Structures are given as C-alpha cells and as structure tokens.
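Board work, copied verbatim: NnrS family protein
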Amino acid sequence: MRALGLAPLFSLGFRPFFLAGAGFAAIAVAVWGLWLYGRLPDAQPIGGMLAWHRHEMPFGFAAAIIGGFLLTAVPNWTGLPGLHGRSLMGLMLVWLLARLAWMMPLPAVLLIAAQLPFLPLLAWFIGRDLLKASKRDNYPVLLVIALLTGCQFMTLAGVATDDSDLQRRGALAALWLVGALMSVIGGRVIPFFIQRGLNRLPAPVTSPWATHTLLIGGLLAALSFATALNDVPSPWLSGLFLLMGSLHLLRLWRWYDRGIWGVPLLWSLYLAYAWLVVAALAMTLWHTGLISQQSLATHSLAVGGIGGLSLAMIARVSLGHTGRALTPSKTIVLGFILLMMAGVYRVLLVPFSASGLGLSALFWCAAFTLFLMNYTSILLRTRV
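↓ predict structure ↓
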C-alpha cells in the first residue's frame, strides 16, 4: 500500500481523477445508450436506470473531473502541497466505492451512505488550504460544492422514495451548479490559456462583475430547478437566462483571437464554453414558448458544455502538469471534434430522429476513449 501511495498516479489529484472520470464517462454513457436501445438485461440498479443516469453524470463523472481539477489548482492558488499519497488514494477509493455501490444489492440507506461522503471530503481537503492561505476570492468554490452536496442528497432522497420528480429536480439543479462553477473557473483559466498559447500581451479581459453576476445567476438558476420554478414558463426566469447567455457571449467576444483556430487546446475550450451560451439561450426560448423541449437546453449544458469543457480541460491540464509540450496528438483532436458532434446530435438531431441519441452516445464514448488511449500512459508516468 505504501509503495502504491508513492506511485506517480497518486502524486497529485488530476492523475487518478482525470483517468477515472474519463473512463467512467465512456462506460456510463455506453451503458445508458445500450439500455435505451434495449441491448441490456432487464436487471436494473436501485431506482432504475433513469435514476442511475441522473445521479451518476453530475455526481460521478462531473464530480471526478471537478475534484481532479481543484485538487491540482488549489496548491497553485495557495502555494501549499497538494493532496497526495495515501490520502489521495483514500479519497479516490471513496469515489470508486460510490460508483460500485449502484451495482450491488444494497438497501437504499446503504446506497445513499456510500454516495454522500465524496463531495464533503473534497470540500474539506481543498477548504482547509484555502482557509489557511486566506484565499477568500476562491471561497465561492466551497459554496458551490456544499450546494452540490445538497442537490445530491435531494436526488438520492428521490431514489429512496421512488420520487422521480425529486430526482429530476436535484439532478438538474446540480447541472446548473456545475455550469456556474465552470463559468467561474473558465473565466479565470481560458483567457490565461489563450494568452500563454498565443503569446499575447496583455491577457484577454475577464470582467469581475460579469464573473460575479454569472455565479449568482447560476446559483439562482439551480435554485429555480430545485424548487420546481422551471416546471412552467416564467417571464422573469426567461430574463435571468437571457442575461446569463448574453454575459457568456460577451466573454467569448472579449476572449476571441483568430489565432485560437490554429491551436486545438484553445479552440476546444472556446467552442465548449460556447455551449453555455446555447444552454442559457435555449432556456430563454423555452420560457418564452419558442421551443417545446426543455431537455434540449439541459443537454446543451450537459453534453456540449460540461462534457466539452471537461475533455478540453483535462487534455490541457494533463499535458501541462506532467511537463509535456502543449501539443495534443491528432487522435485527441479528433476526440474534441467527436464531442462537439455529440452535442450537436443530442440537441439538433434528437427532436427529428431517434438515431440522434445513439449517435450522440457513440461519439461521446469515442471521444473519452481516445483520451484514455492517449493519456493513460502519460498520467501513470512521472513528470518529464
């Protein structure tokens, strides 16, 4: 155990959690797609496959990517050593046991008990360093993780009571909280990556008031889903989502540099962030009665936004933090393209063809499989 704790894999948080998150993304969506098309046995986890899918995408996949990023970024923000060795192994084991618990014949109370520890433990590990270094500007990250824990409890309560509406509201609120967190993190790192990647001075502008407004807007959006306000069209909610979409669009305009199109690690981030615009504006259109399926906005955020930003971010961070050149292989560039196509098919093709779901799932799984093929050896080896 001691030797494993000293292995490169457990030297910093991004290594195990990016590998686990990418692997789980490919497996979970493959299982979901096969079940949708009737290719799996009738046996289902507690609460059914829909409950499992609703829970595992935000609290399994997204939580792993968020955990890997924050456990790597917080040491940079604070100057303190990051979680590593046996402590990191323990946190990884907590995440893994939560995934496996769904496949076991457990009572609902034990299933819930297995799911809940990860996010509070993550908040504890990063929070103690942020507090020690007095990094107050990063405290909103802890707030979002705390609220995600509440959404997870809400979703699991719906599983335990067989309340599909409670499951749905908890999972949707969590998705918009993840979107809010990505708007905060994206607003910080995407301009920096553009500056470094294109050797531009000064860095593209990110307005503090826009960051604060988008964070508050994301929190309000999550609250509106948790309290069922988004179950019916509302003029004031259409205004909230219009404001959020406009601010995301303003950011993209301020960050734009035509040089990004020659750098895959930049255009992949830029286009993935653009899905946050699509999601917010699609919610505006739903609240004004111009589109009939709210799920199109949800999956714009989930597939294109969260999925796309996750893949682009883990590809960039993994190269940078292992000391390798920021030049991705052609296969991972193909992965970026496939994930963008997964978002397009899920949002634009599904309303017209049942094949849209299958193609979207196939491209999503292929994209994360390509990441694993290219990055597993990188993440298992020592820094160059």
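The mean pLDDT is 93.
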